[in-house]
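Researcher: I'd like a candidate sequence for this fold, 77 residues long. If you have to choose between options at a position, lean toward the conservative one.
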């Protein structure tokens, strides 16, 4: 797994990765539905703060967004 710094991606690519992840995960926010733009903005903020890491898996040739804590656990194993 390769970590990708968000500043190495063009803005449109970063937004596309975030949008694809949100749509793939189908996150449920409870009773109040949150629109896609707000979800993208929140995810982008977490990525830029370092709370979420962009990863690339050469085996599957796919990108994923993983929390910093989950990355730490994966590195320990």
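Model: Candidate sequence:
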């Amino acid at each position: 797994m390769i970590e990708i710094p968000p500043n190495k991606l063009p803005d449109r690519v970063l937004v596309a990765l975030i949008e694809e992840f949100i749509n793939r995960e189908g996150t449920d926010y409870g009773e109040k539905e949150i629109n896609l733009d707000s979800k993208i903005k929140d995810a982008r903020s977490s990525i830029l703060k370092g709370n979420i890491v962009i990863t690339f898996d050469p085996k599957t040739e796919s990108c994923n967004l993983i929390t910093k804590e989950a990355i730490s656990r994966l590195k320990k194993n």
